[in-house]
């Protein structure tokens, strides 16, 4: 059975005389109204110069308890990400993704390797030793980006007024490359249903 991803956009309107910026809140829910975590949302105000990041982002995806932590990481293009191993066992981290193919051969506890991500897109991460390990690095060139939390929420501060292009990605989103894009008006609340495979 398939469910839907509900994409809710709340963008406050700048008051007269105030700076032309807003707080943008995106809430991602499934069709039953339950929050969806680990959805990556990026925002690009129309006419904004370049994709210089205006958000906090991590630079590490560790191996801990035979898992990748965090399971989903969003970074701007050009970021070097470290892969420290905190497990007692060795890991062999790799990706065959179009955005970045790499292989970090066996390394043990308290060792680390790093990779630079220069191409926007999604990089699916695995371990050649532990098949159950799966992670995702979403590389973006938009000035705003974030990962939804347990409440399905992503908040961006200081977004310029006007229209904004939003891209939402989730590994179960039933769309090309697991992502969909909309252009939203800054003064209108929008509810958009996106198809997502059952989690």
UniProtKB/TrEMBL annotation:
Keyword match Chaperone: no
Keywords, ordered alphabetically: Signal
Family annotation (InterPro entries): CarboxyPept-like_regulatory, Cupredoxin, ET_Amicyanin
Signal peptide annotation: 1-20
Protein name: Methylamine utilization protein
Annotated organism of origin: Sphingomonas piscis
Lineage: Bacteria, Pseudomonadati, Pseudomonadota, Alphaproteobacteria, Sphingomonadales
């Amino acid at each position: 059975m398939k469910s839907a991803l509900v994409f809710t956009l709340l963008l406050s309107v700048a008051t007269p005389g105030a700076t032309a910026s807003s707080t943008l809140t995106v809430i991602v829910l499934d069709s039953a109204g339950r929050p969806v975590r680990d959805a990556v949302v990026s925002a690009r105000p129309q006419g904004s110069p370049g994709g210089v990041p205006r958000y906090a982002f991590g630079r590490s995806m560790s191996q801990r308890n035979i898992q990748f932590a965090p399971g989903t990481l969003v970074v701007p293009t050009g970021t070097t990400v470290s892969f420290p191993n905190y497990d007692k066992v060795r890991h062999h981290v790799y990706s065959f993704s179009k955005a970045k193919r790499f292989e970090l051969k066996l390394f043990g506890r308290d060792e680390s390797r790093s990779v630079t991500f220069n191409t926007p897109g999604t990089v699916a991460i695995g371990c050649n030793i532990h098949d159950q390990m799966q992670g995702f690095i979403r590389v973006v060139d938009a000035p705003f980006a974030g990962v939804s939390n347990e409440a399905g929420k992503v908040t961006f501060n200081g977004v310029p007024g006007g229209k904004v292009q939003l891209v939402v990605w989730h590994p179960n989103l039933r769309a090309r490359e697991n992502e969909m894009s909309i252009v939203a008006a800054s003064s209108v609340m929008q509810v958009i249903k996106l198809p997502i495979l059952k989690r």
